[in-house]
TrEMBL record:
Keywords: Hydrolase, Membrane, Protease, Transmembrane, Transmembrane helix. It is a single-pass type II membrane protein. One of its GO terms (molecular function) is serine-type endopeptidase activity. This is Signal peptidase I.
Length: 230
């Protein structure tokens, strides 16, 4: 193959590989940002599962997709006087009746719809924490939320005058996930796309060099004048 043909082939490869790399990297970034988020815990309210300084990954979900037991992030600036997201656990969804508590101390249990709820995640095993009783029927489209560290969590128990302490499903911005496979896949795709983009740039440079050399080699050499023999 001539230098011209090799240069053209390298140029085509550069465009194809580069475009694939850019699309792959940008697509992975866009998908990751729209589907997942990350946050840093700043309080003890969800201890021991989550403590200050912990970095967590969450799914961006609608509040209607969460279930009892899910740990969610939500925003309630009118309640907490801040736009910072709050992390708490879903105890009751629309239509549930949440009652606290039967028993005392580590033996205390809250119930949902008349059934005691096992809560192995509660700090110290104390489902009560502040020793305050409540009996709440969660309105449709709202959630009853508590922190795992019941003795140190400003949650639904303390806002009884505001929809019985419940939070609108629409306030939910994310749900904690232990599935780290997809973020790893997304990160790998971004790296692979970046590498392909760099390879495309390298192929483009190679195509330029090959074509330049071919053009130089193709320039006809001017004939040298011949001196007649005397």
């Amino acid at each position: 193959m001539s230098g011209k043909g090799r240069g053209r082939g390298l140029g085509v490869a550069a465009v194809v590989v580069g475009l694939v790399g850019v699309v792959l990297a940008l697509g992975a970034v866009a998908y990751g940002r729209s589907s997942y988020g990350a946050a840093t815990i700043s309080s003890q309210s969800m201890a021991p599962a989550y403590g200050p300084g912990d970095r967590v990954i969450y799914d961006r979900v609608d509040g209607g997709d969460v279930r009892r037991g899910d740990v969610v992030l939500f925003s309630a600036p009118e309640r907490y006087q801040s736009d910072v997201s709050v992390m708490q656990r879903v105890i009751g969804v629309g239509g549930d009746r949440v009652v606290c508590c039967t028993g005392e101390g580590s033996g205390a249990r809250l119930s949902v719809n008349g059934k005691p709820v096992p809560e192995p995640y509660v700090n110290g095993g104390d489902a009560d924490g502040v020793h305050a009783s409540y009996d709440v029927t969660v309105p449709k489209g709202r959630l009853f939320l508590l922190g795992d560290n019941r003795a140190d969590s400003l949650d639904s128990r303390f806002f009884a005058r505001d929809h019985d302490g419940t939070v609108a499903e629409s306030a939910v911005t994310g749900r904690m996930t232990d599935r780290h496979t997809m973020p790893v896949v997304i990160g790998t795709a971004v790296m692979a796309g970046s590498v392909l983009a760099l390879v495309g740039i390298g192929l483009g440079i190679a195509a330029f060099v090959v074509r330049r050399r071919w053009r130089r080699a193709s320039v006809p050499v001017a004939p040298q004048p011949v001196q007649p023999v005397q």
